[in-house]
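Morning F.,

Quick status update on the modeling queue. The single chain you submitted on Monday has been processed. Sequence for confirmation:
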Amino acid sequence: MNDPAYDSGYLNSAKLSGRYLFKLIARNCSDCFDIIYKYMKSDYRKYMDMGNPLYLCKTPKQILGNMGISVDLNTEISDTYDEFILEWMSDCYVTLQWKYRLWSSEIIDIVKPEKLYKQYYPLHETSLTNAVTKIYEIYHLKDLCMHRAKRIY
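Structure tokens below.
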């Protein structure tokens, strides 16, 4: 894709931040998937999708605080959710949004967290690039891309 959502210099930082964010959600929230869904639908995430450096450079704790979620940084690893899978999910969402310049709020409506979590085992053995391409194809995200030219970023 030649037209990513924002400068590639922010991509690794966005991935690292997303991984930690998803782990904090799993450790501090009883319904991890619901909070991930709300985060992806948030105005905060919308500004990140636009490539706004002010939002791309916030810490996961700041992001959750903006959502009204307080976190205990000393909370134990989640017994309910596999944090390796959550990290992979975050990488998939960030890369899908960045590579195909989609809105996170639209991605999450189609690629629900519960479903993506279950697709870890068939897809994690391939590279992230291949996994994202497969997700893009499986969920027909191309349909969202067709309307990309009409979006304001």
